[in-house]
Amino acid sequence: MGLSSAAAGDGTQLCVFDLRRGQQEGQELDKILFFHPADCPILLQLSVIGLCEGIVTFTRIFSPEEDCEVIESEKHSHVFYQAETDIWMVLVVEKNKENELTWRCGALQGILKEAHSLFAMFHGPIRTLLDRQPSAELARGHLRTFLTDYLSDFNVGKKLLFPTYRDSLKERGTVQMLTVSREVALDVQSLTTVLGSCLGNVTCQSLVLFEDLLVSTTLPPDDTLNLYTYAVLRLTPRALHSNASSWSYLRKGTSVSAGPTSSSSNGTTAGERPLLREKLSKGKDGFVAADFAATEARGAVPLTPILWFQQAEERMYLCIYQHKSLTILLLVPASSLINGEEGITHVKKQMLENASQKIVTVEQKLTRGWGGENAYHVSGYRYLLVDPERRVSRASPPGKVTTLAKDSRLALNMLRQEVDLEKSRYKRGDPCHDKDFEACIRTKNNAWVIAKISRGRELYMALEKGGETLLYASTAVEKFSNRYCEGAFSTD
Amino acid sequence: MLGNQIQGGLGTPGALSHAYVQHPPLRCDIPDIRGLFYDDANKFLIAPTADRILYWKTTLYTPSGPPNSDPVNEGPVLSVRYSLDHKAIGIQRSRHGIEFRNRETGETCNKKCRADSETILGFFWTDCPTCDVILVKTSGLDLLAYEPQSHAFHLVESKKFNVSWYLYTHESRLILLASGMQCTMFTGYQFSAGGIVKIPKFEMMSKSEANNKPVLAADDVHIVTVYGRIYCLQLDRVSMSLNLYRFYRDAVVQQCSLPTYSSRIAVSAVDNIIMVHQIDAKVVILYDVSLDSYAPVSAPLPLLVRGLPINSKQLSQTADSQSSAYGGTIYGEGWNFLIPDLICDAENGLLWKLHLDLEAIAASSSDAPSILEFLQRRKSDPSMVKTPCLAIVRTIILERRSVPTVAKAMDVVLDSYTRLMKMGGAFPGVRRTHEQNQQLGSQPNEGSHVVSQEPSPGTTVSPAVNPDQASGAVNISEQSNSGVEHSIDRGLLNINISSDSADNTSDAVDKRQQTVGEASRPLSSGTLTQHGQHAGTVAISPIEMFQSVFTLVEDEMMGDPAYLIAVIMEFLQSVSKAGLKAPHNLYVMMATLLARSNRYAEIALFVSNKILEPCKELAMQLMELGLQHPPTRKLGMDMLRERGLHHDYVTAMLQDGYYLEALRYARKYKVITVQPALFLEKAVAKNSAHNLAAVLSFFCEFTPSFKTTSDFGRYRHILSEMV
Description:
The complex is a heterodimer of chains A (492) and B (723).
Chain A: H1 2-6, E1 13-18, E2 32-36, H2 42-62, E3 70-72, E4 76-84, E5 87-94, H3 105-123, H4 126-132, H5 137-151, E6 155-156, E7 159-160, E8 175-176, H6 182-196, E9 205-210, E10 213-217, H7 221-235, H8 237-245, H9 247-257, H10 259-264, E11 280-282, E12 287-290, E13 306-309, E14 314-323, E15 326-333, H11 340-369, E16 382-387, E17 392-395, H12 398-401, H13 406-429, E18 437-442, E19 448-454, E20 457-463, H14 470-484
Helix pairs in contact in A: 3-7, 6-11, 7-8
Chain B: H1 2-8, E1 19-22, E2 26-27, E3 37-39, E4 44-48, E5 52-57, E6 68-71, E7 79-82, E8 88-92, E9 97-102, E10 108-112, E11 120-125, E12 133-137, E13 140-147, E14 152-160, E15 165-169, E16 174-179, E17 185-192, E18 195-203, E19 221-226, E20 229-236, E21 241-247, E22 252-259, E23 265-270, E24 273-278, E25 283-287, E26 303-306, H2 319-326, E27 335-338, E28 342-345, E29 350-356, H3 358-363, H4 368-377, H5 383-398, H6 403-442, H7 486-489, H8 505-515, H9 530-538, H10 542-554, H11 561-577, H12 584-596, H13 600-608, H14 616-625, H15 630-642, H16 646-655, H17 659-669, H18 676-685, H19 689-702, H20 710-722
């Protein structure tokens, strides 16, 4: 295939295209909604999208129910994700020289899925944008700024670096929860009640985060996940800190690719470019908002972003309040705020009046009980626990995972890839029946990598410097399950 | 709805009042009596005739019937006081002499003072360890000890100073001695089982113009005992205000100035509420000083007579029609206010007891938390506390008051519950030592009359040795050992130690008076046993909150489950703060409400952070709710497993078709209670000969007797047909 040799730069491409558009010969360009890198020659873009469309159409003949997930060529992998009906996102990544399996298809799909979910949360579904403006300028404009801002997180130097085997004990698309005592949980819930009543008769929704961990939510799991993801990317104290510290660096990094948009984005607000790092900061009143110091000359008023919640089926204003390590995301139903920003100001005032004391108490209690970033480390184990139904995961702290040998991590990555396949196979067979699964593999470097699925919950772990026998491995899992998972993975 | 209920409970609908006297009163209008006297230590209403002393025990709930009587010598009577053990009577015959009479032997002895230089102002019996009778004279105090055998008194000590008039209440054990030109200088002593305490000399402030310095009269000063604290109210006629002082061990501190609407006032204490009767205005104002708040409980309102036979259709009774009905005047000339809560109508020979109308008070305020607090502190009529409290909580929920308000109200109820429970547990022990203490402290010289278990009746035991003298009356001593307020209240002059707790207060004093000299006799007034009942009937447990509040409001709150959920959440927090356990059914209700609002994610959150504590009831409910929402069902299953409810877990797995997993689990935990047929049926339903064979062979191994059952034969047959 000629396209691989012609691919520019690092060879990573991300495109979004709509199969319903440009069906007439000569109008193929109309299909393309987004293409990264933006400076890629049009012909090459068309070639990539043409290939992808061809594959999608072709595989549908055999598998009308299931989407094509990935095509592997000699030097590239194309990872597919059908974000909305007939709207596809494709990520093209270059393979490394050793031809090892260094990434996992599921993990890359996770990026596409996350990017789309976040986009839909801020701008609504792409299809809606296209329907609203058939020329697609609106959709393209939003996708360009949004995805460029999103991809800036993966920028390392001039390259885009996507998750590899190093991240095999991470699960994108899940929420990490803070474990709290019952007493503190009740305090938090009491705070949630107060937050919910900031608008009077209509209940406001809220998310409470401590550091980068979720403490409570009133939203359904999918909406929680999207908002949580956004918060961890941009809003939590750590994210805000890196917003500020990486300001100049990122600007350099992104300005190249976002070139054409940066000139037109002078007046954009946080609502339009929610992922633009340098604009977000915490104000004196404790609320996090887009910083308009730079554009104040234009008399811009910071606008509160309105988000779309798919599961909750509502559009809501997002107010972000931060007190020390505590981040509160307050969501005000847009339909019940007639006077927009004025109403938001009122809600914020209400919140400060009613909840300040509780916020301080809750923050203190959480800080007191907080075990630090290694709080969930279990010595001897490197693990990842996932509950896909609740979209919750917990893993060994990243600092501990890096101590694993490369071989262990490669093996784990491979195992996870296998498990992913196995899972999708089961799903096709019997969607409502959970199938238990267990695999323990001895790696080249004499470590154990283990995967276990029990009643829909997943546990992955790597044990280095352990015993040699399989009994050792299964006892280790049993112990871990009994002590940290309330027996969820214990052998029956 | 509930508001109506509360108001509907009023004795006379339409008549607004917060305090009342209950008809019929005690009638003491016996002919030939020469005046009425009140012995506040024994709570006797005393009526002397020419040769007898008649007395009624006013602590009996129905003090009707004929009075008791004692023969006495003829002569004038200025005052009468029975000794605390009822074995002797002291009768002041004149301004110079008192006659003491032994009730058993009839022996009398006289105590006289020097007629030329001093007069006797009065006397009283005391349970102070060193003396038995205090004689108050214009020249000071005489402390006398009584020897029953010889029926003789000897002077223990004499305290010399000038006295214009004095004030003593047995409840407080406090005597105030007025002196000075305007009688505003006071010396005070407390004579209690703990010993004698001298109150620092103090002056009652009085606004006075330069040329008009009013003399303070004994009628203008009132000692009140509430919540185990001693207060004094002094009427300042110039500024028309009532000064409230509180007595501490080493100081007398003015707390505030209350307004008055009458030149004559009287003070009563009912159930730790200070009632200030504005006699001219014919209204009463209530104060609850428990939290050092001196705002009136409610607006000034008239006193009602309750229980009058109503023979007219008139709904609202004016004071006039009331008075005509009972034949006297409310706040009439003849009314004497007796300590703590009695009114003696000397003109008509009637004795009334004052009551609080808790329902009316509760209905008069919309501040639910403080009303609940107020009610929970009351104990005179437990039945009137609990039901209204529950009704109030229900009402504020139904009215959808703000969640913080409801939370505060529930906090009050639960705090009160924990406090009362704690005290309820400690009470029996306290009472025992308390009684011993009485005997030791008050009857040091009594000899053969003491109760048998008394080890050495003749010895006077010093308070320091007494382990629990704290629960007795006055506890001012530093070694007090059981008080809640020990550290704070060390300096306070209290009649008992834990002055703020609902358990103690004047009841303890009542108790004490009851036990004195009749420790072996069951108490008729109920003051002693009241504590147990009090804890049981006033306190509202979390379970009662669930049964009488949440289940009752649930149906009506269906339109807005979010509010009820928020309220229950606050309740759970209150319960947790109070260190109590919430009823499991409340978790079931919570889960149901959440599921009904489609808030399954929060169910999962609350289960994972144990806000909904794991229990079988909840697990079962989650499984039930999970029929519409599989992840919730899983939560229920997990809870069954974590709780070790093996049988239910296996059954649930079977229901969901996980029969092989269920088998494995059954083997591991030796669950033999689930019928093999259920497993076999699932395998047959799956139409898998392989699995059916596996299940069959499993049971052959697992349950040896299985091969003999009909199931074995049946499924073997089915299996043979399948292959």
